[in-house]
Amino acid sequence: VSSELGENQKAYKKKLAEWTKLKARKDLELKAKLLLQQQDSQPNKKFTTAELIALLKWKTGQATKGKIEELRNLWNSAKTLDPPEDIVLPPQPQPPTETDKSPLPKSQVTKYDLQVE
Fold first, then answer.
1. Is 52 buried (19+), middle (13-18) or exposed (0-12) by CB count in 10 A?
2. Are the C-beta atoms of residues 15 and 95 closer than 8 Å to each other?
3. pLDDT per position as a tens digit, 23-60
4. Which residues are CB-neighbours of 40 under 8 A, at least 6 positions away?
5. What does the pLDDT read at residue 6?
6. What secondary structure does DSSP assign to the chain, as a single string?
7. What is the pLDDT of residue 103?
8. Is 12 within 8 Å of 93 (Cβ atoms)?
């Protein structure tokens, strides 16, 4: 039975790792959308280096480094691309518990169930 819990633990860790990566991508998506909303409301606002890197990573899926002018040029060409699909984040996986390895409880037969009409 303990090996079964070990398997559950491995499966949980794998699911959690996948979920954590997805959450990081979702956080990046939300940050990028917020930056774009801010630019819509303040068209003259210039993005910082960190903001440009976040936007480019969201839009292209690749981490980009460089001088601010290079990043601005990259963003100006990348912003015309279709935005990536919105990420739907499932609920965070829960760790397996001791109860996961026990069989389902058998229904309790009560005196009431045994009464004959």
1. buried
2. no
3. 999 999 999 999 999 998 998 889 999 999 999 999 99
4. none
5. 82
6. -HHHHHHHHHHHHHHHHHHHHHHHHHHHHHHHHHHHHHHHH-TTPPPPHHHHHHHHHHHHSS-----HHHHHHHHHHHTTSPPPPPP-PPPPPPPP-GGGGSPPPPPPP-HHHH---
7. 47
8. yes
